[in-house]
Amino acid sequence: MYSINKTGITKRLETWQLIIPLVDNSGNKFPQTQIDEILENIGVTFPGYTMVNCMGFWKDQTQTYKDENLQVIIDTLPNASADTSSFFSNLKDELCKTLGQEKIYVTKTGDKVELISFKEFFSELGLELETTKNSDEENLKLAGQLVANHDFILKRLAYETVVLQRDLTSKKIIWERKICGIRLRTEFEDNFSLDVILCGADQLNQLGNAIFQNKEIVIVGDYEYQKYFLEKVAYKPIVEAKLGNIENDIAFTNQQGNPITTKKFIELFTMTVFSNYMVLREENFQSSEIKINVGQDGSMQIGENKINGNYLFHCPAIIKSKEVQKLILVCLNQAISQYENNQLDTIALLQTKARTKYVKNRAMVRNMINNR
Question: What CATH code is carried by the domain that includes residue 45?
Fold first, then answer.
């Protein structure tokens, strides 16, 4: 996937192309809202794509026809080929039904190679590094270590902040961390007041203590530790919601207030509730000590333990449909079963933590348990 040379990194890519018709078989334009919904679905799934207006021509024995289309071009890494293929296969079927088309064109072109700089490579892995301060030899050595451990680095396995301090002389924040034994160092400008509390995004004990103090908190490394998963890696739900007879209408909004489909809401809401289940499990609650309900006003998750205490999480939402409530529970049971049997997709799991308040909630629960 990545190869190293002295001037930078080469990256192998696969290019997928999707043709979206803009007019129906009678020559009438599809509503722009319908096209926007299709593009939003693609945009949520993939970090980026290119869109081109194009014309298609075809003919039968008597005349030539002209179509207006959108061509969507997406570059993906080869290791995501199976997921990408599955996404477009499902999208083809969905668009054939919703747009009334006999065929939707999806193609995959041959592999291509992109040359990227060391800075671009480190950025793609979500690492906050200042490459200009390193020599070419240092960047080359570090890139070699990262490429050799690419899969572990991407999934942030064995991630640990080892130094986080303020250099009052140079007015810098010094941050050192290790990923799979590879030590990284970054310096930030320190423009904060002296009573500000610094916490590494992976430092749950320190963060839990800081949350209950009446002081400003600066979380260092939140993007690198987990949030980059939302920008750099294609979206994966923790489980896919299979609607069956439920209509996939735009009937809900996300946390930013933007309209989303029923399917997307179920998947995102499941992620939020499941995140709180993980918090309780990873802070020494047994599965049998956690209860979850889903109703028309959202979901509550309750952890009850004689030693650790009782904890309640509430995920508010307006869910009027009983069928949607039931499907959320089905998705939650599936996610919990896969979690307990170590079968969850690692990327989907990390995106769930990044998209929700997992780190903050876990830090708070740990603090309350430690102070009982």
Answer: 3.30.70.120
